[in-house]
Write a structure and sequence with these properties.
single chain, 74 residues, mainly beta, SH3 type barrels, 5-stranded antiparallel sheet, 7 strands, 0% helix, 49% strand, disordered N terminus
Amino acid sequence: MSVAPRCAPETESCHLCADEGLPGKVLTIDRSARTALVALDNGPTTVALDLIDASVGDVLLVHMGFAIARLDQP
């Protein structure tokens, strides 16, 4: 039995589809909608917070419209 592939925040890429996760800083949070406005390199975008909890100022790894991990800030 093989182990199912998974997204790996430590490598900033997804083993399921080989896409890269994008780091972005949380600007605002809408708790009722479970979304956050996140500043990515290509501009701010709304992402789902279904998989993790976040706070304003956190840096998140975003993949396919979902925040999949909180990243340590340097």
